[in-house]
Specification:
540 residues; mainly alpha; 25 helices
């Protein structure tokens, strides 16, 4: 096959197929973006494992430290408290130091926080444990922002719901591993420090995956810079188009598209739309701009309340999940840990399918209502004492709960960019983080107070099962409120711009980037417009 190697801008042309191919293609335009997505998910696996260490060891922590339910739930409240404030500053810091450096920084902070928790567990110092959770929380949420910043670039305008959903749900595998392994490790070593040391090991694994993601992102950026240099070189050649025009006109008159002259003068340069996309790729910032808050629509504020409630109906509920299954359904700590992997695995497994469905179907307002009803059904099922020992029936509400989080990760959170202008996405996500962490700070304290208030029966005797029943009543009430607000969102969106009824882009199809030949720019009637199909012409 005859090929010309004289193309500017790093492009080669197959003379038989009359097609341009970029010699240097960004990794983001290849299947390697899925490998980057894998590493991005893995950097949060260790974080998820360590986050739920207290949940898997709830009974043991309460016994050994002599704390009640409210004090135990403080381990989750203090984690979220700093993150009510950090979104106001975290995005700015990440913009200054860069997402890659931020991943290293916040991964290190998480490691330090977990090591402090290990020390608190070893010495049975509850306030040392609290201090470790505060440090851990300061790094955890900021690491999540850094992860989102990189993935927003890698999956810009393609499969965004899928990518966001996987980044939220796949780390739940870490929660599942903690629920499964921590009770067994404690049972074997009879030490609270032992399961937390294993958590340090998962953080080391996540740190290695973070380095791999950083390397891929760096190499992809270098390739993009190389492409930009080639495009700039084409732009310089365009300045001499008056000289080129005469020779091109002459070659056109010859009516020989396969002539050697044409093969030696194929100056190609990108359309302005393509150049604008390259310039705007790094403009996604998850930070809060106070001036922009007033510009956010009512639809956004309703959606952000839904985000807050759905997060609160999943995470704080499972914070006490291990002991709940022990007290209400007669399980041991190890059996409860085994059953609690179900919602996490279902959430991780269902997210790709739900995300793809949401991208293709659209109608997100309706899907959000479905999500809220599923939450309501789940918490109603937990009211009933389905069985008094290990049985298959308890898997039903746990499976539905995992499905709820799959909808939350794939439908609710990815709906945020649909209801705000593109330049306000960073502010919108920053506020979403504030509201979510407010819920995660308040709900554990509220449920802890409810439990302490109602755990004694009419005779004054302690009955922890009674406390959990009233906790479930509270979650049912919040689920009813969620349904009402979700219906309100649909009506507001329907009577407005119907932004949540737009279709997503689904799985990436054939994305074409148009390049025009110099004949087009020099006002010569051109039939030389060429489309580069990245799916067909991937060159790595």
């Amino acid at each position: 096959m005859l090929r010309s190697s004289s193309f500017l801008g790093g492009y080669s042309r197959s003379m038989s197929k009359n097609r341009l191919r970029p010699r240097v293609l960004s990794y983001r335009h290849t299947k390697l973006r899925y490998l980057a997505l894998f590493f991005a998910c893995m950097i949060m696996i260790g974080d998820a494992y360590c986050f739920d260490n207290p949940m898997a060891l709830q009974s043991e922590i309460k016994d050994q430290y002599g704390v009640d339910q409210f004090q135990f739930n403080l381990l989750y409240t203090v984690y979220s408290l700093p993150n009510i404030v950090l979104p106001f500053f975290g995005g700015v810091l990440i913009d200054k130091i860069g997402a890659r450096t931020a991943i290293l920084l916040f991964s290190t902070i998480i490691m330090i926080g977990q090591l402090v928790c290990v020390w608190g567990a070893y010495n049975l110092s509850f306030w040392t444990l609290i201090t470790g959770r505060v440090i851990f929380g300061m790094g955890s949420e900021s690491l999540n922002v850094s992860q989102n910043s990189i993935m927003a670039i890698w999956f810009k305008d393609q499969e965004m719901s899928l990518a966001i959903g996987l980044c939220i749900s796949i780390p739940k595998i870490g929660n599942a591993l903690n629920s499964l392994l921590s009770p067994q490790i404690y049972s074997k070593y009879q030490s609270l420090a032992a399961p937390m040391i294993v958590g340090v090991g998962t953080l080391i694994y996540s740190f290695i995956c973070g380095i791999a993601l950083i390397y891929m992102d760096y190499k992809s950026e270098q390739r993009e810079k190389q492409n930009q240099m080639l495009l700039n070189k084409n732009d310089e050649n365009h300045r001499s188009q008056s000289e080129l025009s005469a020779s091109v006109k002459k070659s056109i008159k010859d009516e020989d598209c396969d002539s050697p002259d044409l093969g030696r003068s194929p100056e190609i340069f990108a359309t302005p739309q393509h150049q604008e996309e390259e310039q705007n790729e790094h403009e996604v910032k998850e930070e809060i701009n106070f001036k922009d808050i007033a510009k956010l629509s009512g639809t956004f504020w309703i959606l952000i309340i839904i985000c807050m409630l759905t997060e609160a109906l999943f995470v704080p509920f499972l914070d006490n999940g291990n002991e709940l299954l022990q007290e209400r359904f007669g399980m041991t700590a190890e059996e409860a840990g085994l059953f609690l992997i179900i919602p996490y695995l279902v959430a991780s497994g269902s997210t790709p399918f739900i995300g793809n469905m949401a991208d293709k179907l659209g109608r997100r307002s309706l899907l959000i209502i479905v999500t809220s009803f599923i939450f309501l059904i789940t918490h109603i099922l937990f009211i009933f004492r389905i069985c008094t020992s290990v049985c298959f029936l308890i898997t039903i509400p746990l499976t539905i709960l995992g499905l709820c989080f799959g909808f939350y990760a794939s439908v609710v959170i990815p709906s945020v960019p649909f209801v705000v202008k593109s330049q306000l996405v960073g502010t919108a996500f920053g506020l979403t983080g504030v509201f979510q962490n407010t819920a995660l700070a308040l709900f554990p304290m509220i449920t802890g107070m409810i439990f302490n208030q109602f755990k004694h029966d009419e005779n004054g005797e302690e009955n922890e099962e009674r406390g959990y029943v009233y906790q479930s009543f509270f979650f049912i009430g919040m689920s009813v409120l969620l349904v009402i607000i979700a219906i309100l969102l649909m009506f507001v969106d329907k009577n407005g711009e119907r932004k949540l009824s737009q279709r997503g882009k689904g799985f990436a199809g054939k994305r074409k980037v148009d390049y025009v030949s110099v004949h087009e720019v020099t006002d010569i009637p051109a039939d030389k417009k060429i489309s580069i199909n990245y799916d067909a012409d991937q060159r790595i």
